[in-house]
Amino acid sequence: MKIEYPSAPETPRSHLPFSPATRVGNLIFVSGQASVDATGKIVSDSFEGEVRRSIENLRKVLESAGSDLAHVVQTRNYVRDDSDLAEFNRIYPEYFKPPYPARTTLTRCLGGLLYEIDCIAVVKDSVG
């Protein structure tokens, strides 16, 4: 099975040594997406702003790999402050619909970021 590293010009890229996504067969593994611009520069914002920018970056990476948010099967979420969990749980269903993907949420983590997300998804055309 071939390993691919899909990317498009609008895919956010980091200066750090990792690919935005890796595709193996019908599975897509997306690296952590944060509140960054297209060049990978951190864009500080409110917690809500960082969540929305991070998930929109995730959307762009998924689209470049042949998928979308509706085909995400698992998310891992990193929330710096416990006090932001209620807001996170309010925003999350705007992007992920029932039945929700499997999910892990870690708190008290991250340095200069308030939020980060990674995921595993399937290619759109591979499921009914």
Walk me through the structure.
Helix content is 23%, strand content 27%. It is an alpha+beta fold and 128 residues long. Strands 1-2-3-6-4-5 form a six-stranded mixed β-sheet. Helix 1 packs parallel to helix 2 (85-95). The longest helix is centred in the middle third of the chain and has 18 residues, at 47-64. The relative contact order is 0.23. The mean pLDDT is 92.
Write the layout of secondary structure elements.
Elements: E1 3-4, E2 21-24, E3 27-33, H1 47-64, E4 72-79, H2 85-95, E5 102-107, E6 115-122
Parallel strand pairs: 4-5
Antiparallel strand pairs: 1-2, 2-3, 3-6, 4-6
- The global form is globular
End-to-end Cα distance, whole Å, is 22 Å
The number of helices is 2
Helicity range of the residues?
10-25%
- Structural class call reads alpha+beta
What about the largest sheet? 6 strands, mixed
Query: Uncertain segments of ≥5 residues (pLDDT<50)?
Result: none
- What amount of the residues lies in strands? 25-35%
Overall pLDDT confidence: 92
> Total number of β-strand segments?
6
Radius of gyration, in angstroms, nearest whole number: 14 Å
Q: Numbering strands along the chain, what is their spatial order in the largest sheet?
A: 1-2-3-6-4-5
The ordered H/E elements are: EEEHEHEE
